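Key idea: predict the complex, not the pieces.
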Amino acid sequence: MEEADVLIRDCTILTMDNKQHIIEKGFLAIKNKQIMAVGRSTKASSLIKAKETVNAAGKVAMPGLINCHTHAAMTLFRGAAEDKPLDTWLRKTIWPLEAKLKPMNVYDGALLACLEMIKSGTTCFSDMYFHEDMVAKAVEKVGLRAVLAEGIIEAGDSARGEKMLKDGVSNAKRFNGYADGRVSVRLGPHALYSCSPNLLGRVREAALRLKVGVHMHLAESLDMTESLKSKYGLSEAELLDKIGFLNDLDVLAAHCIYLSDDEMRILARHNVKVAYNPVANMKLGMDAAKINHLLKLGIAVGLGTDGPASNNSLDMFETMKVAALFQKSSYHDPTILPTETILRMVTIDGARTLGLEKQIGSLKVGKRADIILLDFEKPHLTPRHNLYANIVYSARGSDVDTVIVDGNIIMEKQKVRTIKEKEVIEKAQRTASNLVAHA
Amino acid sequence: MEEADVLIRDCTILTMDNKQHIIEKGFLAIKNKQIMAVGRSTKASSLIKAKETVNAAGKVAMPGLINCHTHAAMTLFRGAAEDKPLDTWLRKTIWPLEAKLKPMNVYDGALLACLEMIKSGTTCFSDMYFHEDMVAKAVEKVGLRAVLAEGIIEAGDSARGEKMLKDGVSNAKRFNGYADGRVSVRLGPHALYSCSPNLLGRVREAALRLKVGVHMHLAESLDMTESLKSKYGLSEAELLDKIGFLNDLDVLAAHCIYLSDDEMRILARHNVKVAYNPVANMKLGMDAAKINHLLKLGIAVGLGTDGPASNNSLDMFETMKVAALFQKSSYHDPTILPTETILRMVTIDGARTLGLEKQIGSLKVGKRADIILLDFEKPHLTPRHNLYANIVYSARGSDVDTVIVDGNIIMEKQKVRTIKEKEVIEKAQRTASNLVAHA
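Result:
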């Protein structure tokens, strides 16, 4: 048998494959960044030679978590303005702070976010922000996987919109396939309230030319949705449909709260993917998106944290639980979005949402080896009547022991190998303090 | 200066006193179970002699968290039935399992719950269950503080109701002031759908005679509230008012979701205290209680996890965040229940809810020394723009480093001193597996 790069043995494996197989006392072998073998530990598997062996007895292996919507570098502004309405929060605090952001600041904030994500088991994130070149460099450094979209905000200034589109296209060309293929790209038209239909048309053309998708906000706020309706006479998804934006375009839409049934059908018809962000939605006083409706229409839904300044955490375990809770309460139905569905949203369905389902999202031979190990020898993870429930309702990011991305062990026994944690934290603290002090 | 038992120094102190003072670089001295001194670290404080000194640089000290409503031993059933309606969950799974529960099983489950609570920073919990004598023994063993109420369920069988009341009274007499005063007691009439008005009247008399309060469920489920209304012609709080149950009685009511404005005024008039359990409420598909209305009426509101089989966690940091999120979403107002209010609910207002505000809930000289230290040198707790927001929105139970109850250090550097963690976990796993296997 050929030699593996990494062998993980004697753990419970949550494959998240089509049949949602769970393997007790299983092993995973990794070679050339891919999963080379997965199965029950047997005499044969115990003979596999590997450069590095991880004894994972008492642990649970599962696909690395996928965060479908965030603004990573906004860690810098976590706590800078709390308990405010969205509009006030943006105009009074966030946009003035962002106006002062330098590329190196984005690097510092993104590195802090990456550290937080690794420590809580996220192996792939879908980002929209400014200076995504710096985010790409942070991702390369720490060893994560990411889909990066340079934000494009016109805000009534068409020259600004054109400039940002140009930057977005330039970054997309530069960083598609970056970091050994772990980075892919999208264009990031911010939202319908910040980009005109004309600019959106130009973004669409550029995305089709580049053969990349777009990542945008949609129907996040009732106020903004209503103000757009009075301006255009159409709801958000209707407007996108009417201007032809959705035709042939791979669209990842974050939020999707304030949509009519007709609009949901528009999204389904155009194969739009949805990133659902329950924590940030609730914190801003918004309603629950109708996720069960979207799922019934066959729409791919992944989960996201949204930016760490509006959540204020990047822990996807928390987001899993809150997503289930908010949906059950909103539909007045405890049976909807059961644990299996929630787990799919952060693994294989998250991958579908980002168009990466062939590469990641489940533990199958041939897929990229993005794997996390959870330490289950904890009081809150006892007893083990139901493994899925243990993970969705009881586990926390701090239960993640080991993180593997693209076959590389980037965290082991809660210690990150690729960066110096203390330095990253201290640098981000200084950068954040300086930005806020001079606001 | 007299010698302290414990000296904690060089930490940030969140006092939760009337003025919500935050002391940077502060110290706390503990003597005879009480807080002897609290203030800024100075030359004088550095000269205090202590039997044990905790160097807490980089840490945040705050009052131990108070969980106002749980059924601790139900850790055994965590995950035994998931994503079910309340009625099905109770009748098909929980009640049949509980029928087989032996006192020692309750001890095993309660000990696991205590371990989980210590590790996530809860120092006092308010419990309602069967065999509370065993819970009292677990509490004594681990060193926590608790308010224990023996559950009383009549369920149409008045002899059963009488028997349970008798047991409740007997346990109340035996365990009030137990474990060096850390245990106090209540009577636990389960709910209006499980106890008749006649039995409730007898519970009230017994409680007044014993000079203890009661702990009950109120208006948790719309179905049950409506079924009671069709039976009695009155809503739940109206019925309690009409039968005189609330007169002169110290009532802790868990949930309080389905109440009219009139009923909320009834609760306020009788000084009823409320334990709010957002996670369990949402998981069962319920609505949000109108907490902002209750607070405006001057009602004391604390937070609870509810039982670990319906949450499925005892982490009060999670409960803090979900409480804020659910209320903001439900009221469509991101400004309500700001971080200060949420923090009061798990500290000083939690103490008020249990009638313990003179003993615990804030870090003031003369109060019992129930203190936790949070390790803040973590990526998700960076930067520190807003300490309250860091704790409510970003911290997790796993950030708790040290736990002190009644002046005793029961956990240091995440290691519990009073029990062997591994043994507690393994015993509870065996007990839980046996119970479910023979269901």
